[in-house]
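Student: Hello, beginner here. Can you help me understand the protein record under this note? Any guidance would be welcome.
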Amino acid sequence: MTTKQSVPPGWAFWAVSLASLLWNGFGAFDYSMTMIRDPGYLAQFPPEMMPVIDAFPVWVIVAWACGVWDALAGSLLLLARSRFGVLAFSLSLAGLAASTGYQQSIDMPASLTTPEMRVMTGIIWAGALFFLWYALRQRRAGTLR
């Protein structure tokens, strides 16, 4: 029986892993500030945002939470060089898909469908896909255990 040797990570692995933690840490911060209804934080968003969020079914809030917290877990697992980071990033992407899909299926106020909001959604998707791809690549390379 052979065991696969772990490949030591280079500086790029640590840089991407740290960027992942910062990026997904902000997502967790955003979710938390929204859920606790921090007035200072919410002041930067259109006032129509909270009534839309309040109308979300529970499953959408759960999907959003899974998207955020699984992404943060994926970042921490990546830093720990754990192969389970791939699973966490995959679950995060599923949560993002469910919550984004729901938002695309409802009537949203014009202030929440601006080009800037669409670009931000695209950036979130790009980040989620990139970090999953990167974790998969590192698992294949033997960096993750």
